[in-house]
Amino acid sequence: MKTIAALQDLVTTASLDFEPPAAELDAIEQEMPLIQAEVALLDAKIMTLDRPASELDARRIRRARNRVMAARRDLSNRTVTAEPGGAA
Fold this sequence. Notes:
mainly alpha, flat, single chain
């Protein structure tokens, strides 16, 4: 039986000891409202896993979905207006 060797170097903790660049941190910061809205939607859905959804649960999920859509809209509008070169 042949052994299969990796073609790349092994990943060690020394190679992972870095911080993300400022541009990546800024991108995450811009997407944070969407991330928070998606987490809230997930929380609302998780609450209904072990029991039937009540009217209150349905409203909670509907409001969370609306917040996700609004955050996506705001993020896409912000991204479009921030494009360099003036092309829209």
